[in-house]
Amino acid sequence: MFERFTKPARAAVVRAQEEARALQHHRIGAEHVLLGVLATPSVAQRVVGPVDLDTLRDLVRRHAAGERDAEALRSLGIDLDEVRRRAEESFGPGALDTGRPRRRLFGRGAPSTHVPFDRSGKKVLEDALRAALSLRHNYVGTEHILLAVLGRPEGTAATVLREAGVTLDRESATEQVLAEIRRSA
Fold first, then answer.
1. Domain spans of the chain?
2. What's CA 103's distance to the chain center, in Å?
3. CA separation for the pair 179, 47 (Å, rounded)
4. Which residue in 14, 58, 121, 161 is a FRET match for 142, CA 20 to 30 A apart?
5. Distances in Å between the alpha carbon of 71 and those of 10, 58, 98, 162?
6. Mean residue pLDDT across the chain
7. Among residues 34, 13, 29, which one has the least CA distance to residue 166?
8. Mind listing the pLDDT tens digit for each residue in 96-129?
9. Count of beta carbons in the 10 Å neighbourhood of residue 116
């Protein structure tokens, strides 16, 4: 599948794994792929415009912590954000983060910190290929990955984008992508 990916799209996928690892998440989800795309100079980055990656990371971290859990705790009078702030104040950043990528052994016991894709991460890459094909492109670029994210407005990645103030929908993003491709040609 990755043979059709442009260099920036491949770089974004590599960056997605780095983002998941840095956030100490066990899997690469669509939200990590989005972080990778927006951290990579590319068509998608130009279409979205300036975005604070630290804000996006915080939003991804919050969603991973589980909004349902936070809501349940709030109903008991416990503010999870305040608990996290105090724990990090006392014990340092990430004090409550528990997830670590699993280490696998290959060959003669060499450790690997490979982080696999979860269902949403795989799906966004598959949908990116579909977006490229629907635009009659013979490659998959970061712009197609962005369109795939926007094509799942209920997903964590699209939600994080909206919460960060990005108001793109798939239709307007497609128009902007095509305009950006024409400008670059």
1. 2-184
2. 22
3. 9
4. 58
5. 37, 17, 20, 20
6. 85
7. 34
8. 665 444 443 334 444 456 889 999 999 999 999 9
9. 14
